[in-house]
Specification:
single chain; alpha/beta; nine-stranded mixed beta sheet; 20 helices; 9 strands; 45% helix; elongated
Length: 534
């Protein structure tokens, strides 16, 4: 490369003067950088700090490690600096020495030396910087200016599109949300952590688990055997609960929601893409009141059943349960709402019914499989960001229906519908299986499957896998722990010895319902009367 001023041989003073004069005669292509935009606003920039960072990187190669994750070529405002930084980045990636000579050589080989300002401009930068002191501070300022420019560009684009009457506003909102999310993800960086504070956090979790009944380190699901296997739902985990239609996915989640929010006071959010809020709450009322869904929908109840409904549904009033039935929910809408729920209401767990009904609008996605992969990956990222467990229901494909026998009908990880990424992203994958649905009434040992379900933990990133038997009461859309005991005289029992909860109101509940005078604004007022009219 013809670069005489950087030749390592001695150059005399007169010769050097001549060389410099010749270089001044050379025509270099300088990229003009506009200082203001079309609206007269000065773009956020710090050209002096850009020069300081580039100069430092050519002076001390070790400085690269301090800024590599923070800055990208597009972080620089001056186009010349973008080109020079790209060359420095390439040299570092290829593990080659970085100084003014190697940078010039890299730019010349790529044909970008003149676009970067030429030899003269590079020498000017090199002459201005003597060390890499304060490079981290300078890099942070450049990154902040770059983010500000991105937001300005984003806002200008959305404003222009909003003035276009041919563009659907709903589509524009999706585009705006996805682009803003993309900007935030690109600029979201988490630094490494020395292990000591992490050990302290783990000890705190262990002490909390030791203080809890049963030694749970996470949120109790309300199902005893399930909690023993998982130690509770863990923060930042993505839990997938999958099953074929009619297996009871929603019933299980509602049973868990009731146990967590009503019995234990844990704030829970439920996103229902399949049912409206009213349908969801009605299913929950069936679960709690133990009055069949058919009778509740028709409201043809006996007087004692009105009292039973009144007394038990009161448990739901003021419970920390938040429901959302937004149809065609996108992953970006979910992220926005989830952050607000955690921030404003202290929600500890989010449930989604169900994953395949979600969309990832606004992104360049070529197939439904790729879309589901994006959704599952985003859900895992959201669980980590909010540090709460997220439970997402999922459908299984028809492979289960095509297999024969008791083992053939048992769900497998390969049955997850539309994407193998669900299995990869999830920390726990569970299946709900009811052999009775397939007219399999006894297992291989001769024990009955009637009224029972298998809860199968097929993948557990941080624990054991296995099966749990649960009691399923379809008329009440309710799952319960399977409790074996010696039945009392006259008590109705299941084939497996599990106790069924009485359908009618218990005496203490009946007394409470009769003696309690509801306030005027009580939504349950009058339900316990046989004169209730609908």
């Amino acid at each position: 490369m013809a670069f005489p001023s950087l030749n390592r041989n001695f150059v005399g003073k007169n010769e050097q003067t001549t060389i410099m004069a010749e270089r001044r005669k050379q025509t270099t292509k300088i990229v003009e950088v506009p200082s203001v935009d079309q609206y007269g606003h000065k773009q956020p920039q710090s050209l002096d700090m850009e020069v300081a960072v580039i100069g430092a990187l050519m002076v001390e190669q070790e400085a690269w490690g301090q800024v590599a994750e923070m800055l990208k070529p597009e972080s620089f405002y001056d186009k010349r600096h973008q080109i020079i930084y790209q060359a420095i980045q390439t040299l570092n990636v290829e593990q080659k020495p970085v100084d003014i000579m190697t940078v010039c050589d890299q730019l010349e080989r790529t044909g970008l030396l003149e676009d970067a300002g030429g030899n003269t401009y590079l020498m000017q930068i090199n002459a201005q910087v003597a060390s890499s002191a304060h490079i981290l501070y300078h890099a942070k300022v450049i990154a902040q200016k770059s983010l500000a420019r991105q937001l300005i560009t984003f806002a200008s684009y959305i404003q222009t599109q909003a003035f276009d009457s041919t563009i659907d506003v709903a589509d524009l909102m999706q585009t705006a949300e996805s682009q803003l999310f993309s900007i935030s993800q690109k600029n979201l960086k988490k630094d490494y952590t020395q292990i000591n504070p992490v050990i302290d956090n783990v000890y705190k979790l262990l002490k909390q688990a030791a203080a809890r009944e049963g030694g749970l380190s996470g949120l109790s699901s309300g199902f005893e055997e399930l909690d023993k296997m998982t130690s509770g739902w863990q923060n930042s985990d993505l839990i997938i609960i999958a099953a074929r239609p009619a297996m009871g996915k929603t019933a299980f989640v509602l049973s868990m929601l009731k146990k967590m929010a009503v019995d234990n006071g844990v704030p829970v959010a439920m996103f229902s893409l399949e049912m409206s809020n009213e349908q969801l709450v009605q299913r929950l009322m069936v679960n709690v009141s133990e009055i069949s869904g058919e009778k509740l929908r028709s409201a043809q109840l006996q007087p004692y059943e009105w009292g039973q409904l009144d007394a038990r549904v009161r448990q739901l009033w003021d419970a920390p349960i938040y429901v959302d039935d937004t149809p065609q929910l996108t992953v970006f809408e979910l992220q926005t709402k989830a952050r607000r729920l955690v921030r404003e209401h202290g929600v500890k767990i989010i449930m989604i019914d169900y994953l395949q009904l979600m969309h990832a609008s606004g992104l360049n996605i070529n197939s439904r499989q790729e879309e589901v992969s994006t959704i599952s990956r985003s859900l895992k990222g959201l669980a980590k960001e909010l540090n709460i467990p997220i439970v997402a229901l999922s459908q299984l494909n028809r492979g289960v229906e095509n297999r024969e026998g008791e083992e053939g009908k048992r769900p497998q990880l390969s049955d997850l519908r539309e994407s193998g990424a669900i299995e990869q992203d999830a920390d726990i994958v569970c299946f709900i299986h009811r052999p009775e649905y397939y007219h399999i009434y006894t297992d291989q040992s001769g024990q009955s499957w009637r009224g029972l379900a298998q809860f199968i933990i097929a993948k557990h990133r941080n624990g054991q896998i296995g099966d749990i038997k649960l009691q399923f009461k379809s008329e009440f859309a309710r799952f319960e722990d399977l409790v074996t005991h010696v039945p009392l005289p006259g008590e109705k029992v299941s084939d497996m010895g599990g106790r069924f909860v009485a359908d009618k109101l218990r005496p203490e509940e009946l007394i409470q319902s009769q003696n309690q005078l509801p306030p005027e604004d009580d939504p349950f007022a009058g339900l316990s009367s046989d004169k209730a009219v609908f």
